[in-house]
Fold each of these.
Amino acid sequence: MGIDGITEAAKRSGDLSRQMLHTVFGEVVNNPFSPSGDGLLNNVFFTVNEVIAILALVYMGIISIKKLHQAGQLGSFIEGDGNNAFKIVKTTFGWLLLVPTVVGWSVAQLLFLWCGSIIGVGSANVIADKTASELASGKAVYIAPVMPEMASVAKGMFETNLCALGVNQGIAQMEASGQHYENNARMQYQTGDSTYSISVNNGSAVCGTVSLPQRPAGWTSIFASGYADSVYSVQQQATDTLWGKMKTAAEQFNAAYMAKMRSGDGELPDVESAIQTAARDYQLQVQHAANSAAGDDEIVQKMESDIKEKGWLYLGVYYHTLATANTEMKDVANLKPVVSGMSNDGDIGSIDYFKGLFQAYHSQLKNSNYTPPLGTESNALARNIDQKSLENAATTGDGTSLITKIFDFNVTNWLATSNYGTGDGYSDVTNPLLKMKAIGDYTLGVAEVGLASWTAINVAVKVSEGKSLPGFAAGMMNKLTGIRDAIAGVLESVSFLVYPLFYSLFGIGLALSIWLPFIPMIYWFVAMADWLVTLMTGVLASSLWAATHINIGQSNDERSTYGYVFLIDVMIRPMLMVMGFIFASLAIVALGTALNMMFKFAMEQVQSDSFTGLLSSIGFLMLYARLCTGMVARVFALPARMPNYVINWIGQKMNDSVLGDMQNHVHDIFAAFGRGAKNMNRNNPKQFNPDAGVDKSKDGIKGA
């Protein structure tokens, strides 16, 4: 990637940022040295540059007079220091930057505009394009935990290969010591002819098998044969790749174990890391194939197309796609490879080497230093290793000796019981923005149903009090039972609470369902406005920056430094905005998952020995919701704040966001529902003169 690639990425006809710059600055964005006469900035800038040039000449004259006076007093026009030549060059450079061009802009202004419209826009487009391409190729924005079932499959494959290596090496050691053993006792690898299957056995004992049904069960007729064939083909390739990785990992572990036995030194490789990584690659590959075949990745493809056509600014529109792309594992659940471990019967020859190999493997697995991503079950791979005797381990294979069937569960039940909107559906990974969005949708639904039910009850009571036939029948029933009066009394008693409650529910639901999901886009728009204002400020101030280079014989060399920091800002701000958006998308998942893990224990500590009823539960829910919404609102400010953080690190540059409080203004619209509910009293207006003996026609001051 060179300057040509960045320039090409910047000069897209449909790029939104370039179109914005063209609207503001005119044709000079596309043709810097070709006057077109469009807009008013060209002539205005020409006048501004004239004024600045005159001021620079006056300043230069003052310096010259001062230096002439100095020469008369000291006999030297310029102090004798090593920077004199550089000061002359710097001053000349400043005058060159002040030279107006045919379009009325100075060279300094064109330099700032070029840096912003080419370097800034082009670098941001390159990064945004790469992000969209990675998502379209099947990668997720964050590292998702491996499905426990998939980790079990990879672990079973590893142990199958390790079993074969242990048995064969044990027989080899027997033969090396002079003991004769049957040749067919060695484990052999066999593949199926008509169906995909791998079996590792010696005709008597079995180390394990891997198989795929010809047509995976559970795929109903709603899937076309093309879909099934394409996904099944990818599944075969992915299974081959996974098997190869686990076979290589087992060979490396066996080689390290043998070397350690011979020399007593050495370190065994990290088995869990190899298993987890290979399993993750498998599930991502199969899920991507399922999404592509079913058309579920159309939104990701559209995001890639829009970003590559309309530019980096469209990245902020696609947060939901960015957050959920390639994370759902529901389609992988429909695929059912089967892995079996060692059989309990059969002849495996000498078990001494086999026992030692598996003992080392179990020890290494239990003491693994592998750090999984958030949401992974703790010690999941080592959990099923119990403390059996070595002899039992040798005959049963330990670990996954029983048949392990993966993905064999009710998908409908999973869909019904999954924590919708939080993550991949299989782990504890939580995206608080998506979770609060789902809660907001449910809250709005509850509020709408509740208000409709409350209205229906009130209408029914009013009808029962009328003179219609239903009212007459209800009146007769009321005379016998008094049920109508009882219902009316209950409604009148609780009505002062019901309407404010509904009002608050609607406010909370709208805030969580509408406002919260728009926070990424709101802050992205704030960052976009800051970028445009920064570029406009740089273009306007660039002529003054050029004038600060004029300092022959002066010692204030730092006056132009701020302009260089501003120039860097103009070039890298779009790129930093894109990176800030990506980091926000990653941080929100990490923080949301950590919050879920910590909040449960914190709640147990607070309420360890007490429970105050329904209100305490509502209070915890409100606290959790507020933590999530506050987290989302702060984290997604990164696209607007990260450029300022980085630029401040480079140089002390003051930053003031033009639309920094926009998010608060939008939030206040929804918060108005809650504030209005505080003063709402529908059926019981407040009585300022409750004394029944007071004449309410009076003003309340003079009395009756």
Note: Confidence is low (pLDDT under 50) at residues 216-227, 386-418, 682-689.
Amino acid sequence: MLHVVPVSTSLSSHSSIPVPCSSKARFFKERDFVPPGTVLFQQGHPTVPQFRLSEGCIALSQTLADGRRQIVDIVGPGALVGTVLGDKNRMTAETLSYCHIERQHGDDVDKTYSAICEAMKRIEAHTVLLGRKTAPERVASAILDLSERFSRPQRAHFESRVFNLYLGRGDLADWLGLSLETVSRCFTRFKRAGLIDFDEPEIVTLLNTPALQAIADGAASA
């Protein structure tokens, strides 16, 4: 069940913002901890104050006229989230894990500009992914991208990389413009080829990063 957390923009930066979460009232503070499945802001609703994600994973998505969802980006620790142009949100932000968030104040122009530049780079890369890459290339690219941002600390001599996959297979499908079945087949194929491993869907180990990178770049077939 999703928890909708609307945030008022009219209160000062030193006050807590009362908001309903499920059937209980809660507060969106200067720094807050929110559970997975929380909608932080919604497409088409009035904009909210920007915030920085210090820990966790958030999906940014748009809903099409027919109700289908397209995940535009997946953001991780350090990302600045929120609309900076216009008076309405262009996307919906939903937490995919427990998240620590901190309100961002408008006087920090440099951080806002850097965040916009980083978001534009990711949007450009995702446009190429959706427009030109095959299904295995898309899934391989997503695995590499997510592993870089959500990998667990490993000892230096370990060649494998373990990361939390906060997205379900359906989320990945909505992000990569594929069907759930296609995403699942690619994961199974990569596992059988010895490129990745997973005993649980949400914990993935990269076993052969160069080979996976070759697939993502279109230099090898899965």
Note: The CA atoms of residues 117 and 157 lie 34 Å apart.
Amino acid sequence: MFLKKLKIEVVENWRDALSNKYYFLSLIVGVLFFIFGLYLNNISSVYNDSAGAYVSVGDFILNRIETYNLEFFYSWGMYLTIVLIVVFSFLFKPSKGPFIFKTFGLLYVVRAFFILLTHVGPPVGFFYDESLPGAMVASKFLFRNDLFFSGHVAVPFIAFLLFKGTRFRWVFFVVAILMTITVLLMHIHYSIDVFAAYFIAHSVYVFSDMVSDFFSIKTVKKIKEIQEEIVSK
């Protein structure tokens, strides 16, 4: 009964959303911007890795802990997070689809910019082993010099911000904390990469929200002007 009700609700929500041409256009723009952000992020990472070997620097926290093999959590924990974001958005937040895509797109654009600015080698004790079972997929996308800031922390935390007003958002908050611990114990990121991710993700969310509100207000105003013009004729 619950699944049937959920199915009806999901279908109705998507039908209402897609029937709005402004929503559909905004969704397309959001998807394209998200793809652009991923592409830019990948290009920046490839460039940094191909530019040469960068020097590692000291880290107050990493200098005091050993390197642990948490590749399973690092890889599959992130995959699960992405699946949860997609499923939860599709089922319960279709109206926020454009905003979600644009916000994540902006996050990756900002990250790409910071990657190019930060020429620092991986931490001492950096865990990177392509022979591990859990790394078979991740190793294709794992770079050594795309450190600032941590996407593994920023993605779940920005999901926590995006789904405000829902209890499910706390799942992403817990994931962000777990990812913080994971990347530090694996020496994948410096501590500044990890802790700065929270502040940058929050700033990206706030900026994206402001821009979204601005254009929403302009769109509504434009629609009203068109309606008034039609009525006056």
Note: The CA atoms of residues 98 and 155 lie 16 Å apart.
